[in-house]
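Quick start: read one record
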Amino acid sequence: MKYLPVIFLSILLSCSPKAKRGIGTPLGLTKPEPLYRAYDSSNYTITIENYANGNRYLEMYENRLTKLTDWKEYYESGSLKKCGTMATISSVYVGTWKFYSETGATDSVIDYDTKFAVPYTKAMQIAEGRGFKMPETEIILIAKGKNTYWQVAAWDTGRFAAAQSSDVLLINTATGQVTKPSYKIHKVS
């Protein structure tokens, strides 16, 4: 008798019609939830998503140590739309990205490292030289006044996980000048 609720729930779930996965987008396309997400021993998170028609929508290979994600996005027809590498936390494009038309022709190739005198990867090296090590470090792009900075936060992982604080560096994207602001960043989970 104690197994009856479990059996009933199993039957109910197996007999119910499957809900359509995904959410509507402004273009009327369906952006699905992750179809496949795996964590491997090489510190990668692999995420694969498909459109409702079964064609691939997205492939992401996130390196949890460097916090960089190799990204491939597809049109609903199945042809490749864009591919490149981005910073996982801030979704900043890093390095060379390729953009394609739905017919498969190359629309553009953009090297995002040329957008700043100090690109993301150089900011990572500067931060590492100052003791800010991955994977406890997050780098995002911020604007302060007329300047743009890489804000580097090194999270204190030894404290209570629900509330953390970080030391912060600001790296000027034009000059590479590093400043240590007087504030810390706090996050609560």
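The two ends are 40 Å apart (CA to CA).
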